[in-house]
Structure formats: C-alpha cells, structure tokens
Amino acid sequence: MSLKLICICILCLTLTINAAPSKKQVADTLQECLNPVKGNKVFPNDAVYSQDIIDENTRITFKPAVIVYATSVEDVQTSVKCATTLKIGITARSGGHSYEKYGTGGRDGVLVVDLANLNNITINNSKKTAVIGAGNKLGPIYYTLSQSGFLIPAGSCPSVGVGGHSMGGGYGLYGRKFGLASDHISSVNMVNANGDLITASTDENPDLFFALRGAGGGSYGIVTDITFNLSPVPPTVTSFTLTYDPSKLQLTFDAMNQVGTSLPAEMTISLSISPNNVQIVGVHLGSSESAQSALKKFIKVSSPTDTQFNEETFFASVVRMGFQGFQGTINPTHHPNSFKAKSFFVKSPGLSSAGVQSINNFLNTIECSTFAEFDLFGGGAANSIAPDETAFVHRDTLYLIQLYTTLTGDESTDKICLDKLTSFGITFQKRFTSYFSYQNYIDRDLQDWQHRYYGSNFERLTKVKQKYDPKNLFNFPQSIPTSAN
C-alpha cells in the first residue's frame, strides 16, 4: 500500500471518528441524561411535540431539542446539569408569553424547562408574604391571594406567567398605587449554571437580587419560586371605561398630559387607540363615587362620549380587566396569534400634538390590524424608586406606549406591515419619545436594546452575569452578556 493511500485511509478514519452525532444520537444521549427527571419529557418525535411548542406568538416557531415539564426543583437541577454536560442551550418557559419566543430558546435545538407544574402558592398571613412558584399564571395568583385578602400588583392578562413577568418589572393596573411586581419581591430561589439552588435577597447574593428584579428573565439561571410582600385587597374596586370620539383624540392626550399625574395613586388608566376607536379603561381602588370625583377634571378636559363605572370586588375587577382571558372561575386561556410589537416610554410633559397625529396616521394607514396602548405610569409608586435600586431603570416616565400589530397570514402583506412598523418605530422614537423601551415587550429588532431596556444599569448587569454564569449557559438573542463590550 502506498504512503499516499495510507494517508487517505487515515484521513477518512479520522473524519468518521470526529463526525458530528446524528439527531437521533443527540436525542438518545439527552434522553438518557434526563432519565432521573420525574416530569414529562417531550421530544421532537412525540405526537404532542407540535402542539407543545406553540406559545402566545405564532409569528415565529423554534424547535427545541426537548421540553422538560419539571415537577420539582430537582427536575430543574437535573435539566441544567444535562445542558452543561451535553453543551446545549437551556431556557425556562413560565407562561409562554415571550414576544420573541425566547421561552423556547429564540433558536432551534434548546432544552426547554417548562415551569407550569411549579405552581404552589404558600401564604404566610402573619408576615403578609407569599412564596409563589415560578410556573404560576397571574389569574390563579390573583384569585388565590384575594381569597386570603391579599394581592400583588401585576399585569391584566391572566395567562401570563409570573416568572417572566415579575423578573422583567411587571407593570399593571394597580401599579400607580403599589408599583411593579418586581418591587414587591423579597427573595428569589434560582437554579444556577452549576445546577445549585441559590437564594437572592438583600441578605444573600444582593448583586444577583438587584439584577433579577428587572433583568432576570432567563439571563442568570432558572427561577423556581419567588417570595412576594403582599398588599391588602381593598374592600371595593371600581372598574371604569371612558369612550371617545376618534376625531377628538387630541383632547384625550391633553387630559393624559395635563391631569394624569394628579390623579390619585389609587387610580390607574390605560388608553387604547385604533382606527375608529378611542377608549380608556381603568381601575380605582375605591368606590364608584370616589372614582367619579377623582376623574371630574380629567373628564372635563377630555370630553368622553360615554362613561361606565362598575363598583365590584377586587377579583371581579381582575376578571373584567382580563378581557375574556378567563375560562370558568380562575383558569386562564391562551389566545395564540401572530403579532409584532414595539414599546416606548414617554416622559413628562407627554406626547406632543405632532406625536399624537403621527401615531394616529400610522394606525390608519398600516395594512394590518394595529392598536396603540398608553399606560399611565407617572405620579405613582413606580416613580418613587431610584433607577439604580433595581435593574428596572424606567422610573421617571409619564406613560408607556405599546404598538401591537396582528399579522394577516399573507406573507407579502405581513412583510409590508413589519417593514412599516419597524420604520415608524425608529422615526417615532427619535422625534417624540424617550430613548427607552420596556423589556417585557421584548423586540428582537430593537437597535441598542442593551441600553434601551437597561440604561445605565447595563454594565452592572454584565458583571453580575460574569459572576453567576461566566460560561453564558443561559443565553438567548437578547440575554444579558458576560461583557458590556
């Protein structure tokens, strides 16, 4: 045999030995590693796989290597150790509401740890605290806590998972009185990159505790449960709706800008505009009489065509504001759809008349169904915390805007809509809003997201990442990196 032929044979043998493992080999190895997990495991060949990878946003789909339905902290720890050993990505899914599908990794081939079964809620009445499993949805949390006379401030959508929601801040219709969900966290239990369960609080790992409250959505580890400080449920709550003539839109913004921050902290309002529809929904933690009294000046300035006030219990208000998101008493329902969203924070004195006209023109010309939502943020508890006290930096804002576009399913039309939304978002931000956006309305296309989501806290967050996850095991397209460079 010639030397040349021997070399070729050796080369072929080397290539064979070093060949990448097949998908089946990877799946078999992963399945063996995950064998100690007691929860269900769904692999790509399983019949339910195609259904289980569907989350709230159907615009994009990623194909995980496996979905692990953890039933215990030990299941989470085993999953993390397998991901480390096999060098594959890992992510947590709490409610499946990530706008960019980061709950399934933001890419193919990731090990997804679904936390839905980590849904215990343990209330300590004397301490006025609750330990809440990270897989709980907001609807059942509101219900369970209210049965004991308590609440945490959070969002309106009942099917949103508390894990992702509170780790990104968590604003909602009780925010002006109580602040963000993250502001009420007293400690967090998290499985780190080594597979160890650690606690973050003001006393233990305080640097991690800082980071998790605003930037903790999957960047540092897998949160398994959260301890919240509870607030008392008010005896009476008034939900209200103010309807407006779309041609008088500017009057509504005049009221938001001029009167909004002077509304009592017990009242939070959200303005929604779309073609031919302008409406404010709100919640007042008090009687209908006191709500109408508090809104007297606002109503005078904005001139609604119709007003409705509903005095009810706290949980009845939660259900009403859940916008048909409940099935039966407390079970939240998902409504998957294909969408894209942008967000903007507006500081005082608010959106100018040119800004109002700009967004109204956009809503009336884009080919896809689109609405804009303005959540009053200013004049409340969320503004009273320093921007560097937690990772949530957006403390000096007047209101938060969300632009939400529902796609049609027609590829060419949807491309036009997405291009228009992106172009408008860039121009609108430069001309009319602050530089910042809301991390819970995460947008993969956002330029300089590092500073638009985290501002002056970003470099500090990367140092925390370097300390707790130096090998960047927990990563997705917009996770906190190990370096600010």
Automatic annotation (TrEMBL):
Keywords: FAD, Flavoprotein, Oxidoreductase, Signal. PROSITE patterns: FAD_PCMH, OX2_COVAL_FAD. Its cofactor is FAD. GO terms for molecular function: FAD binding; oxidoreductase activity. Residues 1-19 form the signal peptide. Pfam families: BBE, FAD_binding_4. Residues 60-233 form the FAD-binding PCMH-type domain. Belongs to the oxygen-dependent FAD-linked oxidoreductase family. This is 15066_t:CDS:1. It comes from Acaulospora morrowiae.
